[in-house]
Design brief:
Two copies of one chain form a homodimer. Chain A is built from twelve helices and 14 strands. With about 400 residues, chain A is α/β, with parallel strands linked by helices. At the A-B interface, helix 1, helix 2, helix 3, helix 4 and helix 9 of A face helix 1, helix 2, helix 3, helix 4 and helix 9 of B.
């Protein structure tokens, strides 16, 4: 048999850096996310790939769906995970239930409202804001006034405004929205599994979260759930969902959310399915109430440690503080970057500054998933002490 | 310190299936993809997560970019990977360079043209087809006639039409497209790394591929590259790219493709970055010419084995056959599903039927990445023999 090789030539050569071995340091991720994965989740990731329609894959997807229904506390059948990051959860929520020309009312209390507005504008929707003071949630009274004024088709809010560490209470908003004919989207990227959340009893229409925060799976696969009212709206749209990749009328069929056979839509990442399945299994084993209490205990221990050091919590009202993200005001005369660098250098602990409107004003610490333990709180405080000491030392040496 | 616990209750309980251990069988994936990952890639996936803006992550992204420039054979600076499956590569290509009201000419030679049309319609574009006979590529003469008739802004074609196993020659199409003022998108999802491909010297404007085929990384992260002409068009659009998630003017900044600082856009999946980096490192070590020859040798060995068994290759002209996907006509009186089931049961080897227009007509075998070796060809033929024997046996027992 003659192969009849022709001359294969290349015009461009490979990079030298790529030919060096992969080295990945192990860090303790205590910024607002991603958080660390458990050993069990990491171990699951090395399993060989499965095909996107293999029965084993479909079974794991079913288990994920059940795990998500538990995590969201919902019976919604249109519950699945999008093969993309949490950003896509936001864009898919809006893209499915918002039509061109409709109005979306965005509760803007930090970074995420601006991002939702950017996406909504691209969809041809009309954006109205209910803007709050940074770190202070919107009240039902404010919201009702805004609903009367703007008559939106959709309301968007972030349960965990990670740019400020503020928790927006959700209870009561769903029924109010529905009285005014609006559907409610809630972003729980930085809260789900750490803060109590009840999609069904709070009458939330669309909710999504991040896989890489409290749940402790890798990023890149985004849990989302639609209420029967949201599902109805999607199937009754005047225009097609502009993006096939997250058109729920098609993606929902791949995930077995409707009657009828499962259909090929895209090649799901088996690796991320393994990781998310194991993360949800760990949550189901621990149970939500225990996870909620564990996160609360960690946050209280951290807040106590911060107070003892004379550091000022950014959110003044304890009722509005998230347990997953604890922000403090940057102390006077401290260069935050030096604190962050020293914590990483000496302890491999990640801390973070502000984001968007809080940039340069606050430092944010994350207590999510496997990192919400007394051990991690103490490690974090230790790293913070060393970081602050280093920043003061540098300051002094410059005087 | 009093915790002041309130009563945490849940309304819905976790699923029993989720509480069982994860079991993932090891299969040899010899359908048109995903293919198997190498041990080196699988090992890389279990590294702990890194943050999306950590210096180590940004360095790995730079290495991936260099590896992709090599794999695509391009110097395009706007070369990166989208955090989503290959489907999103197609939708992002169209979404970035096609504006509402513009015409896209789709070379339709199987399944992928239909999908590109679906996406283009959602973008508000006007779709025209150059349709070919199944398994036969379009010629430059056909294409020029279509360009004269339709005057499209964009041409879309699949280099590897995986639904038929047909290879569409690309050389010559780029310059022809440009003479008519059109930009050229090429889908290399099922070919890149296995078939020679030269983005720059073939004057391709947008090219994307799948991570999970020849490259041998997990799915969920999709390499894509834009020529300077494509980049220019994106920055000069009259309308915004409708999707922020894959708007290259923003995503390109996160990947360091333009001058200026790198900016947060979404939380990239460190796990998939590790896997893709290692897959590209392995390709760079092997070199493209050797990888191309290895895939060709495997395909020739498989074709020879099929001929010896009296099986008929679906693509009659050897010049139009892909080396990565080898399809045969389903032999008379054979129930394909039985062949596929027996190959999986007895050998854990995955075979596939047709897709879309070839459904029920052909069987498809994939030789991609680590599976393009003589050992795997022989394993595949062995599984095929057993599958065919089983299907004949069942047939006989029914008579």
């Amino acid at each position: 048999m003659s192969y009849g090789w022709k001359e294969y030539a290349v015009e461009l050569e490979p990079s030298k850096e790529l030919l060096k071995p992969l080295v990945v340091p192990v860090k303790t991720l205590m910024a607002p996310g991603p958080s660390n994965c458990s050993e069990r989740v990491l171990k699951s990731l090395q399993h060989q790939l499965l095909g996107h329609l293999h029965p084993e894959t479909l079974k794991l997807m079913d288990e994920i769906k059940a795990g998500l229904q538990y995590a969201f506390q919902t019976k919604n059948t249109l519950t699945l995970a999008i093969s993309a990051s949490g950003h896509a959860g936001m864009e898919a929520s809006l893209g499915n239930i918002l039509e061109p020309g409709e109005t979306v009312l965005i509760i803007k209390s930090g970074e995420w409202g601006s991002r939702a507005a950017n996406m909504s504008t691209r969809l041809g929707a009309h954006v109205e804001y209910l803007e709050t003071e940074l770190g202070v949630p919107a009240t039902l009274t404010d919201l009702e006034a805004a609903l009367q004024r703007h008559r939106p088709a959709v309301i968007f809010l972030a349960h965990a405004e990670s740019s400020t560490g503020m928790k927006q209470p959700v209870e009561g908003i769903g029924p109010l929205a529905h009285r005014y004919g609006a559907l409610l989207i809630v972003d729980t990227v930085a809260s789900l599994g750490g803060e109590p959340f009840y999609a069904d009893s709070w009458a939330v229409d669309v909710v999504y979260t991040g896989s890489q925060k409290v749940l402790g799976a890798p990023p890149g696969i985004t849990p989302i759930s639609f209420s029967p009212a949201a599902e109805k709206k999607i199937f009754q749209r005047r225009t097609q969902v502009p993006v096939l990749y997250w058109d729920m009328t098609v993606l929902g069929r791949y995930w077995g959310c409707f009657d009828g056979p499962r259909m090929y839509h895209h090649t799901i990442c088996a690796t991320l399915i393994y990781g998310l399945r194991e993360a949800l299994a760990q949550l189901a084993e621990e149970t939500l109430p225990v996870s909620w209490m564990r996160h609360k205990a960690a946050a209280l221990r951290l807040e106590e440690g911060l107070r003892r050091r004379g550091l000022e919590l950014y959110i003044s009202n304890p009722q509005h503080r998230l347990v997953t993200i604890v922000p403090i005001r940057i102390p006077e005369n401290i260069e935050l970057q030096l604190v962050i660098e020293e914590a990483m250098r000496k302890h491999k602990v990640e801390l973070a500054g502000g984001l968007g409107p809080t940039s340069g004003k606050i430092m944010r610490m994350g207590l999510m998933g496997v990192n919400a333990t007394p051990y991690h709180v103490d490690l974090l405080l230790n790293a913070l002490d060393d970081g602050l000491r280093y920043a003061r030392l540098v300051k002094k040496s410059k005087i």
